[in-house]
Design goal:
Layout (H helix, E strand, L loop, with lengths): L17 H32 L9
Length: 58
């Protein structure tokens, strides 16, 4: 079984460009903001409906 010589200075896997890293960061921030808005929306709806949310038949 032969083993290949690997350059320890060469990164493994895919190396992203600066533009790709910026795009990934913007996408991550957009997803986080959308999730935060959704959480706040669910909380607001629950507060508006009040305790009646818990008093329902199962």
């Amino acid at each position: 079984m032969a083993t290949a010589m690997v350059d320890p200075n060469e990164p493994e896997g895919v190396v992203l460009t600066e533009a790709q890293l910026r795009s990934r960061r913007r996408r991550s921030i957009a997803i986080a903001l959308a999730l935060g808005v959704l959480v706040v929306l669910f909380f607001a709806v629950t507060m508006v409906k009040g305790p009646a949310v818990l008093k329902r038949p199962m």
